[in-house]
Amino acid sequence: MGQVQSQQTVEEKRDTEDTTQPRPPSSDTTNQDSSLDSLIEEAAAFGEEDEDLSLEEKAKRALECPCIAHLRSGPCGSQFSDAFLCFLKSTAPEKGSDCVQPFVALQNCIKANPSAFSKDILADSETKRDDEDINKEDVEIEREEKPAKQYKIRPPLWSVESKGKQKPKL
Question: Where is the composition biased (Polar residues) (predicted)?
Answer without folding.
Answer: 26-37
